[in-house]
Design brief:
alpha/beta, seven-stranded mixed β-sheet, 9 helices, binds zinc ion
């Protein structure tokens, strides 16, 4: 019961934090800047420029907003600005952790959906785990792929132009399939708008280009809140990571799993944490990490 109470308190706090800042943002929604050519989804925020984040200012914001992330945890991650920026000009911050003997490249992504706060929290914790765990893997962590979505008053799944980045990748037949799927299967849900064309967004374009440039052997993409593990790609899927079990949920036009795993043949592990607002406990974060390392060693030859 105590655990439940604590969880509820955390949830209330998180929601409170989101709601409190949210009021300041209301005016920007629906302003002329929100219009996306073609199909403007009503949830789109204004694509106005903001003061660019530094690693320090990002950590201050994240520590206030994310469940179970202190400034110390974020500072320890030693994020640095990558080459790419979001629609609103925010740098996509990243961190490499690598030994000289590294043979495999693994890209770990959080916060593609801006309202899945726990995904960014998990990746920040995992940067600390990677620094403590010797392996022959070159890790590249990008804890917040969609800063505009997560850092606005009320976090949104979509980016600043109202695009679901995880439907914006150039899967074969996108031009026909993605808009049709959106219109028919999601009934034009603004949270799932795939964009006017594949790679129309700087955030998804960066990831696409990074796959071409850096050629990761594995991509781990963290989401919430479905509480399962999904996998796309050429090798045997992990059965479980911590308490999450494999349950392959299907293929969507324009998703990263579909593009990376099915089309480009780069294994994509998609983690769906059980809650978007609660970060797993330390022990669970650690167990998931160890299970990921073990599976990577068995299936991809890292050790
Ligand atoms: Zn998601």
């Amino acid at each position: 019961m105590r655990v439940l109470q604590r969880s509820l308190a955390t949830l209330t706090l998180a929601l409170g934090a989101v709601g409190a800042v949210g009021t300041g943002q209301a005016a920007s929604v629906g302003s002329p800047g929100a219009v996306v050519s073609g199909s403007p989804p009503p949830g789109a925020a204004a694509a106005t420029a903001r003061t660019p984040l530094t690693p320090l200012s990002l950590c201050e914001q994240l520590a206030r907003r994310l469940p179970n992330v202190s400034r110390a945890v974020c500072a320890r991650a030693q994020l640095v600005p990558g080459a790419a920026t979001s629609v609103q000009g925010q740098p996509l911050l990243q961190r490499d952790v690598s030994a000289v003997s590294a043979r495999l490249r693994v890209l770990v992504l959080g916060g593609i959906h801006g309202d899945e706060l726990s995904s960014t929290a998990l990746v920040l914790h995992w940067i600390g785990a990677a620094m403590e765990t010797p392996s022959n893997i070159h890790w590249r962590f990008v804890p917040l792929m969609n800063p505009d979505g997560m850092l606005q008053g009320k976090p949104t799944r979509t980016n600043a132009r109202g695009v679901d980045l995880n439907r914006n990748f150039p899967t074969p037949g996108w031009d026909k399939e993605a808009p049709t799927y959106w219109a028919k299967r999601t009934r034009s849900d603004p949270r799932r708008y795939p964009g006017p064309r594949p790679l129309s967004e700087p955030e998804s374009r960066w990831l696409h280009d990074e796959m071409e440039r850096w050629k990761p052997d594995l991509i781990v993409s963290v989401h919430a809140p479905y509480g399962v593990l999904d996998f796309d790609g050429p090798t045997v899927a992990p059965e479980r990571l911590g308490r999450l079990y494999l349950d392959q949920v299907g293929i969507f036009p324009g998703s990263l799993g579909n593009y990376g795993g099915v089309h480009k043949k780069v294994p994509v592990v998609t983690i769906e944490l059980p809650s978007a607002l609660r970060t797993p406990q330390e022990a669970e974060i650690r167990q998931m990490w160890l299970d990921l390392l073990r599976w990577t060693a068995e299936r991809l030859g890292a050790g």
